[in-house]
Design goal:
This protein has 291 residues and is an alpha+beta fold. 46% of the residues lie in helices and 21% in strands. The chain folds into 3 domains: 3-183, Sandwich (Jelly Rolls); 191-228; 232-290, Homeodomain-like (Arc Repressor Mutant, subunit A), CATH 1.10.10.60. The protein has helices at 6-10, 98-108, 131-142, 152-169, 173-183, 191-198, 205-211, 216-227, 231-249, 254-261, 266-277, 281-290; strands spanning 3-5, 17-21, 24-31, 38-42, 45-52, 54-58, 63-67, 71-74, 77-83, 89-96, 124-126.
Amino acid sequence: MEIIDFYKFVEGNPLFRQMSVDDVLFTAYDCPLEGSPVDYSTEKNYFCYVFVGGGRWKTPTEEYTLKAGDAAFLKKGVHRVFKILNGDFCALLVFMPDEFISSVLKNETDLNIDEVLEEQTDSVIPLELNESLLYYFNSLMSYFSQSSPPSKSLLKVKFKELIVNIATSGNNPLATRCFKEIAAPGMMKSLKLVMEENFIFNLKLKDFAKLSNRSLASFNRDFVKTYETTPGKWLKRKRLNYAKYLLETTDLNINEITVESGFENTSHFIRIFKEHFNSAPLTFKKQQLIK
């Protein structure tokens, strides 16, 4: 499945109202979700607050539905989105690089970012919206209706406010943990976390390297140290096992499983599945139904 560079599509697009400061961009995204599913990539993390319509975000382990009045924090990387309602999808998006989130956590809060985090967070984190956050998102939208845009200094304060509000309110522990992951000193993003979050997407090795904040050479070297195999071999085995899991647990057809597992095309998937499991996918699925 083709991956759409969502951030580049939005940034500077005259179709969408937007404002930015210090690599932070917020925009009123008012556009249909064309097709279903769609894979979107983004080089920056982003907050999504839905005003109209809805969508379903799928990760390798969970599915998250956002409807009007819902919000989530989405890590940089790739997200698979399914349209769930007819009509437009309208949302407020706030894109933030790791560096901005890290700076706010270190300089504007008293959070301990040196603590060891036992559990890793998913790439999509739904937000619990209290009255303060609801007011916040609506206040951002109000800037688009003003006769003149707010100052850059005010926008910067507003963007910092969002991070501080979520990180210190106690209502969103998963988002707070994720911010700490991003701000951890001297740490490159966990290679294992990057691979587990994104193996279902048809990315090139240079894309995995970029998501882990490594050069391609460092990525390949660290990968072999971590997994004791090459990235290509690991991805093939991981995707095949995931496809096997989907055949065992879902009603998806072979074409859908090809896409869901990150393979380029169905014929390629069928061939290597048969080589690995000594059974064609459809035959394997029928055998599961008999059990």
